[in-house]
Amino acid sequence: MSKAKTPRPLNPAEYKALAEFRYQLRRFLRNMEEHARGIGHHPQQYQLLLAIKGLPREQAPTIGALADRMQLNHNSTVELIDRCEKRGLLRRVKGAADRRMVTLAITSDGERMLRQQASAARQELQTVGPVLSESIRQLLRRSKHRGD
Fold this sequence. Notes:
There is one protein chain. By secondary structure, the chain is mainly alpha-helical. The protein has one domain: Orthogonal Bundle (Arc Repressor Mutant, subunit A). It has five helices and two strands, in the order H-H-H-H-E-E-H. The protein has helices at residues 12-38, 43-53, 63-70, 74-86, 108-146; strands at residues 90-94, 102-106. The protein has a two-stranded antiparallel sheet with strand order 1-2. Strand 1 and strand 2 (102-106) form a beta hairpin. Helix 1 packs antiparallel against helix 5 (108-146) and helix 3 (63-70) crosses helix 4 (74-86). It is globular. The two termini are 21 Å apart.
């Protein structure tokens, strides 16, 4: 049995880069949460619609797939889907071949909300994105040079 290599501790510059990355990421997420609330939506509703819209083509938008993408448990995902369905943001679609298979489809109201929020996200990323990218570059560059 081989002994696992102990990772090298971060140096002060790496801690700074990691802290900056976390700060900028959290700032971005908070701004997006506030924007969603400002247009009358719960932030997780937008996140669910984005998860559906952004799924890889080969992956069906099932409750299980979305629970994984959202990192929520199954029951919490079902409750979120129920709330979105009540608001007219999405609908459940039963499979033609297997009626037990349920997928989710975004409605026109959901598409409208998704466009508003995604446009704001892109705009916010134009500001915070370069700082996030630089923080990641600093962490990866140091790790690569040291063989981690």
